[in-house]
Write a structure and sequence with these properties.
heterodimer, A: seven-stranded mixed beta sheet, four-stranded antiparallel beta sheet, B: mainly beta
């Protein structure tokens, strides 16, 4: 079956621009996660959804970051007024249950110039 | 919250030999899970193996096994019969409920 997909795979934004990153989880997966992975580091948790409810957004670095999953499937991570420090790979993952193994998408590499 | 430590930035192994990648964790939670993921140069994180804190047996998945020593708070990954395709970054992760914390990773290089 289809895995987690993310689009776009690469995004270049000028500082100050808004960006929107999309995640299509595995069908039927209730839990959805966003992570940020800086170069040479492990992924860092950003936010967690169970169905359409955002249960934890404690990892979002600032109020410029916003995530939604309005119908409990596709999710969008939006970054407003991008800064250079936002440059990273943004990974989306989904799982069947909250504490189960998470399946990751290929990521979106964001470069802010 | 979990803290995950991977002390080996890089490891080398000869093809067909076994290799152990180290991972220690620190948590005050009673119930937690430990995971290993592989990240090839293509960037996708691939789930390898899972160990629950209450599991008495070490987890195994094909050529992967997890050497779980609860008293030492370690969850080392053992890869047997290494293959060239095993060359990648390997991340240890741990968490309770839904929130995973990842280590900094170990870059494994398999030499022919």
């Amino acid at each position: 079956g289809a895995g987690v997909s993310q689009s776009p795979r690469y995004k270049v934004a000028k500082r100050g621009q808004d960006v929107a990153l999309r995640c299509d989880p595995i069908s039927g997966h209730v839990s959805l996660f966003w992570y940020q992975q800086a170069l040479g580091q492990g992924p860092e948790f950003l936010t967690y959804f169970q169905n359409e409810a955002q249960l934890d957004k404690s990892g979002l670095p600032s109020d410029r970051f916003f995530a939604e999953r309005p119908e409990g499937s596709v999710s969008t991570l939006k970054i407003q007024r991008t800064q250079q420090e936002d440059s990273a790979v943004y990974l989306c993952a989904s799982s069947l249950v909250a504490d189960g193994e998470q399946y990751f998408g290929p990521g979106t590499r964001l470069t802010v110039t | 919250a979990q803290k995950i430590t991977q002390t080996q930035p890089g490891m080398f192994v000869q093809e067909k030999e076994a290799v152990t990648l180290d991972c220690t964790y620190d948590t005050s939670d009673q119930s937690y899970g430990l995971f290993w993921y592989k990240q090839p140069s293509s960037g996708e994180m691939i789930f390898l193996i899972y160990q629950g804190s209450y599991d008495e047996q070490n987890a195994t998945e094909g050529r992967y096994s997890l050497n779980f020593q609860k008293a030492r708070k370690s969850a080392n990954l053992v890869i047997s019969a290494s293959q060239l395709g095993d060359s990648a970054m390997y991340f240890c992760a741990g968490g309770s409920n839904y929130k995973l914390t990842f280590g900094k990773g170990t870059l494994l290089t398999v030499n022919p």
